Amino acid sequence: MSEAVSSESRLQTHFANLEQQYETSTFGMWVFLVTEILFFGGLFTAYLMYRVQYPDAYQHASHHLSIPLGAFNTAVLIGSSLTMAMAVHSARISRSKAIAFWIGMTMLLGSVFLGIKAYEYTHKWNEGLFPSNFWLVAPDAAQQRIYFSLYFAMTGLHATHMVIGMGIMIYIAAQALKGAYTTRWYTPVEIIGLYWHFVDLVWIFLFPLLYLIGGH
Amino acid sequence: METSEQRVTYLNSAYTVRSWLLTIDHKRISLLYLVSITIMFMLASGMAAAIRLELLTPAGDLMDSDTYNKAFTLHGVIMVFFFLVPSIPATLGNFLIPIMVGAKDLAFPKINLLSWYIYIVGATCALVAMLTGGLDTGWTLYTPFSTAYSTTNVILPATGIFIAGFSSILTGFNFIVTVHKMRAPGLTWFRLPLFVWAMYATSLVMVLGTPVVAITILMVILDRCGFGIFDPTAGGDPVLFQHLFWFYSHPAVYIMILPAMGVISELIPAFTRKKIFGYGYIAASSLAIAIIGFLVWGHHLFTTTQSMYAAVVFSVLTFAVAVPSAVKTFNWAATVYKGSVSFESPMLFAIGFMGLFLIGGLTGLFLALLGLDMHMQDTYFVVAHFHYIMVGGAIMGYMGGLHYWWPKISGKMYPEVPAKVSALLIFLGFNGTFFPQFIAGYAGMPRRYHYYPDEYQILNVLSTMGAGILGLGYTLPLVYFMWSLRYGEDAGTNPWGVLGLEWTIESPPHTHNFHETPVVTYEPYDYPEMAIELGQHTGHEPAEVAHV
Q1: Which among B176, B208, B227 has the least Cβ separation from residue A38?
Q2: Which of A46, A145, A149 sits opposite B240 (nearest CB)?
Q3: Does the interface ipTM go beyond 0.95?
Q4: What is the pLDDT of residues A160-178, one digit of tens each?
Q5: d(C-alpha B155, C-alpha B518), whole Å
């Protein structure tokens, strides 16, 4: 009985019913993700422009990246999409503790990804590959610096998105433990799921573009 | 109306500061925006006045080059990003869209409030930067000047623009979702008022374009911090910046003008008491402008290294985007034809809009010509052209809309005579300011200099005089709108005797707009038939309406 009451109390006054509220929220999230695609799109355009102009410098620069680490991180992130899907599934069948567990797992995998990323960044910094601290000696060092500017901008923006997502997950996991999400209403879980899959998808493009194409 | 003293409205439901700053009522948020953008408008107008005073004489006597550069940059940045982009959407759109679709609020009321706070943070960054040394890059922030050579603090104002962009994205996002999901029963897409169609098209541009300029400005900030994305000394490409920048900033022109077109599409049928001519075409032309508007940015780069073939395509597409604008203009003219036209102040602004937008639009076609643009690029002809669109078009539409819906927003009538005088002063003052600039520009006077050869002086004196009249025209509404809040007559539900859901509810509206969700069974602008039915409570004689 208390379950039904708590679901109904989720209905905001300006919606006619929970279905309208749910549809509105998910539709809104999709519109938001479109803006995110364009946000990253500017960087991808810049990447593409310079790739066409300086294919050799791109190739030389990508040799400084570690494919094993990138591949491992890709696997970690795809794994975190799976755990996130499990969290949404748990919400759909009203299992509060399972939601919190799977979100916790997602955050754990996200932290592993960010940890490895931090290790890679430190390594690049020490090698003098960070654009503002750049001492690479090579005939095409200037063009490689463009590559690394874009590398740090793109992966940095991606990592920022992960940090924001994980911040929201703390809140959602806490709410889940309080039993806030049930079959009748679990929109926030669904929405953070969409967001996380999007962030994952961005990496699916970043990994081949930065690490693999024209690489070793 | 009779019980207006006791009636709960969104204005009198609470009086605390907290009830305003933490409100999630779209009507209150629209007023928060109205106050904020008015302050920004006054600041940027002050800069415009300084610019016009400097240009009164050929010599650079009032300020030096650096100060002048900062003055026109401040004017441009604030007017574009902090006034024009949010102007109609964040105020009138915020207030009216939920009411026009028959909803109690926007889809995401908290995000709506968040967008205002984001706007305030962005505006504060920009203002602090302007007060602590200014910015001298022009509002376009062209690289490599902005990334490598400018000695001013670029990072802070750029951050302000970056942040304000998200306010715009959230507004557009909220409108799109609201129009899709919150429409009242019976309110089909083709029963939506044209203002909603225009705001929907505007929102598409906001949602698709703004993220691109945000990331572009982020790249400028990164370059300023030692990255090398646009650095030409290391193989970077400043023209890439221009492409990315104009990919948003040209469509941004449509963010400014489409809402004004939406307002005009409401005003024309209202004050001609006639069903709008070509509803479907006007609605579709808004979407066409939004879509084609994304494909014309290259016309800002005719004098760069852009390929000649690309330039030809951009030129042709620029001509194409004029077609839907012309469709609107012809439909408005056809609506007025044989209508019973009345000349209340909002209609005067609408007529002014049509004249000024026509000139602004047609001179845009001059600039779309590849050969002519080589001569006109960076002259006062360009300055005059875009002011005809942004001030003559967008602000005329904004003023018209503000006058038309002020009785609904405030519940009070403003005095009609000064409003008419204001419409006339703005129209005359505007033409006085900017028409001479067409001539000066055609004769070769370049923009962004604080001194010029003697032969341009007569035109600049005319322009400065016009600006004085224009300033007076903008000051008047500030006075009589404030006056009306205290002394204005009660407006009643439908002071203009017109159609539209917003005119079926009380003025000012109740906190949740409608006492019961409306059911819409009719087309918009169903004059004169619907007006006859409404006749008894419109104050207009049915006979007067019927003899059309």
Answers
A1: B208
A2: A46
A3: no
A4: 999 999 999 999 999 999 9
A5: 49
